[in-house]
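target protein:
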Amino acid sequence: MPALLELQQALRAQLLGEAPPPDEESALRLAIYRNTCLSTLVNALRLSFPAVQRLVGAEFFDASARAFIRRQPPASAWLNDYGGGFAGFLSGFVPAATLPYLADVARLEWTVNRALHAEDASGLDLARLALLAESARARVSFTAHPGLSLLRLEFPADAIWRAVLDQDAAAMAAIDLASGPVHLLIERDASGVQVRRLNVARWQFTARLCAGEPLYAALDDRADADISAWLAEHLSSGRFIAFDLRAPPTGATRE
């Protein structure tokens, strides 16, 4: 008698069309289950990538979604987590080759989706920072809010995304595809998910903080007024939820 894992693997192969069912009766039953399963997964992708669907149309989207599902079936039953590989799939999907910006729009939509479903977390208690000795503050390393992400995209996907969802034909016609790359900050606040463009310096500084680099490394001798103001905005906006202290830089005097 086959083990449970073997049965599950066989059913998965049959659902995805990788193996034939054992008999005609099983094939009929499986066809119903397969259609229901695929429809559920396609709808999950449709909810996560509404702008992508509008850009390519429902028929093209469904076909590409089904091709993606066969190549990358879900690894869990939590459908909000399904679709992380869709942008990468679209970048190599030959029928979408005439839309080189499509994968970037999908990357943005997936990041927006992740921000929307991220866990709630309270912002950093600034009073704890204020208690640190002056000599220790440069060694602070932050933990980013789970709803905060950064993206660097080759195409102006944020402008495309907004124009498509707003059904703004004039805005869509005004987009210059050669105006990229764009550096984006995506976060969830009290009013919903926000997508903001940053200049390169602010984006790089924020990326280093989100990667856990201590302040002395992230600042990198660039403690100008703009970066200092940007750090203050990060802290006041609750973009970081915790901190710890890293070792001092090589050659520095320990406390």
User: Anything to note?
Assistant: The chain has two domains: 1-99, 119-255. Residues 119-255 form a domain with the Outer Surface Protein A; domain 3 fold (CATH 3.90.930). The first strand starts at residue 140 and ends at 144.
